[in-house]
Amino acid sequence: MKKWLIAAFCACLLPALVSAQSPSINKFYRQNKFEEGVRKVKLPGWLIRLGSRIGAGQIDEADQEAREALKMARRVRKMRMLYGEEGNPIDQRKVDKLIRNVRKKDNFQDLIYVRDEEGTKVNLLIRTNGAGDLIRNLLILVQSEDEFVMVGLKTKLSIKDINTLIQNLPEEADIKVKVPVPELDPEPEITDEPEV
User: Fold this and answer.
1) Among 45, 89, 122, 146, which is least packed by CB within 10 angstroms?
2) According to the model, what pLDDT value does residue 175 have?
């Protein structure tokens, strides 16, 4: 009887465990973390939340942007990062394959693509929960001739949080938002006509 209960419990948890992982990002991370010139960083969510609480006590009351950033950091559950120290040690074809795989196999969607004059590209891809209102995974890729950064986050961010982040980006950036993001608080239209 106990075996059947344990098996039923595991069967119920399996969909949640599968949806929380990104096999393409895991594979890319494992394949490239020992490349020459590549450094890796992994932070558990509790450490990120602790750092955000410590940081909140160190910033000015008037610095609203920093407060919002720290509030968003508290919703991060895990962070993995790969970065190239001396040049870009990871082949561009591998990065392109990663982007294709997370889109097709892992159900990630493009949120932002930024390219500047020097050729630096920034991709921000997200994977949401079933309802589409909560971001479960966030993948940030920064690529140029002489640098590479990949940040993979497991999060509990809302679309509203990302919209706030997008609105705070500099005006001069060449930004293409590929996924419609709902507006924060649309103001109601005011008319002189009475409602019927």
Assistant:
1) 146
2) 56
